[in-house]
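Preliminary data (for renewal application), N'-Formylkynurenine complex.
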Amino acid sequence: MNIYDISRTLHCKTPTWPGDTPFSYSLNWTKEETGSVNVGRIEMSVHTATHIDAPYHFDEKGAKVDQLDLSVFMGRAIVVDVSRLKELNRVSLEALLKGQEKKRVLFKTNAWEDEEVFPEGIPSLKLDAITLLKELSVPLIGVDLPSVDQLESKDLEVHHLLHETNISILEGIDLRNVDEGEYQLVALPLKIEGADGSPVRAVLVKE
Ligand SMILES: N[C@@H](CC(=O)c1ccccc1NC=O)C(=O)O
Ligand SMILES: [Zn+2]
Ligand SMILES: [Zn+2]
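Predicted structure:
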């Protein structure tokens, strides 16, 4: 079994959304202090690196992370290379997604160029592409980007339309080391009561 880790590393220099809480891990107690164990603590925004968005992130009435159906985050997925497409619209995606019903779709844009720096501009799906995803009954999409919307967007129309279409959102994956093709995805959120999102360890399994 081949396992591809498509998660970004969390460390103190992992880029965050501008102004958001930096990631930190430190030893709260050391083995020297306790005489038995090292005990770490973390602080982070749940939207750092590889994570999922719960609908509550952008919808006051939306489901929280601990209320999500986990089956969406495990199962058949395809990686599609869209790095050469001018626009992520229905027409350009139709050929790539033909016949791929019910699979999670992971978009490899390669547009986050420097993993140590938050990108300045990113591509995003045109709304007509979401109609295509709906017709294919896609349960989840993943992007190698910090957001499915434009970074400056305040109305988050892609987030909202995906949610209305019942398509879950995985952001910040790293697809540099995986080829196009079919895999099994596992990217489970933590059981954080009431949260608007969660970091995930995302992996692709090739059988
Ligand atoms: N929508 C982005 C996150 C986002 O918008 C955000 C994350 C942290 C701090 C502020 C944010 N947006 C603010 O206006 C995401 O889905 O991860
Ligand atoms: Zn997010
Ligand atoms: Zn998001």
